[in-house]
Amino acid sequence: MVRSVLCLLTVALAFVPLLSAVEGGPKNKRGLCPSPGDYGICAHVCYADDDCQGANKCCPTNCGTICEPPVIKTKPGSCPDPNLHFKTCKTECTDDGQCEKNLKCCNSNCGLQCVPPEHGNRQTR
């Protein structure tokens, strides 16, 4: 009897990470996870960003996962005025850290895009 209960419990726990996928899949929150330190909690506190409260992200430790505040990278320069042209709209980024090299994540007429920055006194985004 105990063996059956343990088996059933193990099977049920195996499906917990799949619940996010059934509900439309996990949604990545803005920002990046900090680098894991030398020590960490050896447990899986979360499986996806949606498991964490507020803006916190589900981040790896050396032997598990925990909810941590995201690292938001901001690069120098300001965003240029959005270009007026027609193309298929697609959001490429949510913050500068997702853009290559010195490109910034900026509003355009077509969502957030990685673009070369302008250098001056304008506000970002």
From TrEMBL:
Keyword Signal: yes
Pfam families: WAP (PF00095)
Boundaries of every WAP domain copy: 26-71, 72-118
UniProt-listed InterPro entries: Elafin-like_sf (IPR036645), WAP_dom (IPR008197), WAP_four-disulfide_core (IPR050514)
UniProt keyword Signal present: yes
Annotated keywords: Signal
GO cellular component, one term: extracellular space
Signal peptide: 1-21
One annotated GO molecular function: serine-type endopeptidase inhibitor activity
Protein name: WAP domain-containing protein
